[in-house]
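Sequence, structure tokens passed on for absentees:
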Amino acid sequence: MRSLAVAVGCLLLLGGITLVAIADQQRQESIAAVKAEIVRVERALDESRGENLELAEKLTALRSKLAEQDAEIADTTGFLQ
């Protein structure tokens, strides 16, 4: 009876060790997936920052052009009022 209890205990111990190893492997895979997603998001963020800078430059140029055009068509004589 004692040897049966030892055998069952050893089987339970091995099963527990196996479960812990599998859980740790899944945790490592999850961590790797999260790190890969972080890298992807950082790259997308860097790309969008570059695009935002380009758009901001275009917007600034358009605002300057609009200000120039407003100055050209401004009613300085008061004729249109």
